[in-house]
Amino acid sequence: MKLIKQNWAYLVGGIAGGIGGYLYWYYIGCSTGTCLITTSPYMSTLWGMLFGGLLLNVFFPKNKPSKTKIEELLHEGALVIDVRTRGEFAEGHAGNSKNIPLDELADSLPKLDKEQNMVVVCASGARSGSAVSLMKRSGFLHCFNGGSWKNITTTLFIALFSMCSLSCNSQRRQTGKENEIINKEKIMQTIKLNKADFLAKVVNYETSPNEWNYLGDKPAIIDFYADWCAPCRAVAPILEELAEEYSGKIYVYKIDTEKEKELAQLFGIRSIPSLLFIPMNGKPQMAQGALPKSELKKAIDSILF
């Protein structure tokens, strides 16, 4: 059974070729009676089996490994050798492959490392199969037929991408703590407020219900939002950017209207997002809707400074 699996291309090609040879003799034959190949049904069938087995093996060479094996080899950094002509190679080739035309391969073998894994490619798999046979006879035991270079291109990309992913994941693990700190800092550019925070940092309307007395040491923006609100989610990253750009100059606060309904009712919030601009002196001003960044910057520069 193992022998059949290893030589299935010869067997299938031989059977198909044999049937074709017999049919050729039966329907066409040899009109002169002197044709060597078709003088009898036996000779015609025999030659058909020979040609069929050889032809199919050209397209399905038995020394061609599985796609999984090729992926493993490329993932491990195998050298890819393209044995097409230099003109063919120039028209397109797999990334990082080395071009050694088949007619130059014998002279180039002494320059190659016999212990290195190698994947040999060409246009269809025929020349690469011949190249692998030559290399194995020369002592290269770790060379494999990769078939068409076009097929190997996708496999090579996947392997390289996997290697990059592993490298990136390793780097992320090594710098995980630093990234976590950075991410926390980015999250903290905008500050969420509850009622207690509002009373302490913005204005205490319980002790001074009839006057606006801002308690902050820098101008501020308060974003009245809700998690379910799509426009709120759209303006959120813009506010993060503004909080970073104006870092140390203003506060950017956020109030969840679903959780802090008393604060939302205090300012008469009926649509979100609503943005409250609070200068150091004077009354605050309210703006509604997901304003673009340019408009928000104009409001900051004109109202808060």
How does this structure look, described?
The chain has helices spanning 2-6, 8-27, 41-59, 67-75, 86-91, 102-108, 126-137, 149-174, 176-187, 195-201, 230-245, 261-266, 293-304, and strands at residues 79-82, 98-99, 118-122, 143-148, 191-192, 220-225, 251-256, 274-278, 285-288. It folds into three domains: 2-59, no CATH class; 67-171, Oxidized Rhodanese, domain 1 (3-Layer(aba) Sandwich), CATH 3.40.250; 191-304, Glutaredoxin. The chain is α/β, with parallel strands linked by helices and 305 residues long. The chain is elongated and about 120 Å long. The strands form two sheets. Strands 5-7-6-8-9 form a five-stranded mixed β-sheet. 26% of the residues are buried. Mean pLDDT is 79; it is low at 157-175 and 180-187.
Terminus-to-terminus distance:
86 Å
Individual helix count: 13
- CATH hierarchy class name of the largest domain: Alpha Beta
Instruction: Write down how many β-strands occur, each being a DSSP E stretch of 2 or more residues.
Output: 9
Number of domains: 3
What is the helical fraction, as a range of percent? 40-55%
Main sheet makeup: 5 strands, mixed
SS-based class: alpha/beta
Oligomer classification = single chain
What do we call the CATH homologous superfamily of the largest domain?
Glutaredoxin
SS strand fraction: 5-15%
CATH architecture classification name of the largest domain: 3-Layer(aba) Sandwich
Output the CATH topology of the largest domain: Glutaredoxin
